[in-house]
Amino acid sequence: FGAAMDGLALPLKEAGALELGRAVAAVHWHEASGVLVECEDGGVIHADAVCLALSLPAMRSLRFNPPLPASNRAALSQLALGQVEKVFVTLERVGEDTSNERAADTQGFASLHLLWTDRPSAEACADRSSWPRNL
């Protein structure tokens, strides 16, 4: 995943349009000429737009000028930290027949459901034929 992101970021880095690894102290986002970012090292970055990738605690401690709208502040205060697990799975093609959704998705890869929005029925849980194996 890192190599793919590096490849996508390279043209932006070469054009001087991407800044990585700088600790941000404040974002002034209604500047007439765009956005002004104050860094903790004393540096200042001027940009047309900014995309911040921050942890939740870092986002909460960041100063915004002017302050974020009340709806954004309320949403930010409602977010919670939780445990996230990453599962890396190598899938093999199961064949050309993709008509059986339980066996394969539209690309011929075995289906692996990691998130359910409905509670499965007792019968569906008892039918273990579609459960992932050999992960």
Which key phrases capture this entry?
Amino_oxidase, FAD/NAD-bd_sf, alpha+beta, four-stranded mixed beta sheet, single chain, 2 domains, Flavin_monoamine_oxidase, 135 residues, FAD/NAD(P)-binding domain, 4 helices, Amine oxidase domain-containing protein
Give the count of helical stretches.
Answer: 4
- Rg result: 23 Å
- The geometry reads as elongated
Under the CATH scheme, which architecture of the largest domain would be assigned? 3-Layer(bba) Sandwich
Largest sheet: 4 strands, mixed
* Helix-strand makeup class: alpha+beta
Question: How much strand content do the residues show?
Answer: 15-25%
Write a structural description:
The chain is an alpha+beta fold and 135 residues long. It folds into two domains: 2-78, FAD/NAD(P)-binding domain, CATH 3.50.50; 85-127, no CATH class. It contains four helices and four strands. It has helices at 2-14, 56-61, 70-78, 122-126; strands at residues 24-31, 34-39, 44-47, 63-65. A four-stranded mixed β-sheet has the order 3-2-1-4, with no helix packed on it. It starts with a helix and ends in a 9-residue tail after the last helix. The model has no long low-confidence stretch (mean pLDDT 75).
What is this structure's SSE topology?
Elements: H1 2-14, E1 24-31, E2 34-39, E3 44-47, H2 56-61, E4 63-65, H3 70-78, H4 122-126
Parallel strand pairs: 1-4
Antiparallel strand pairs: 1-2, 2-3
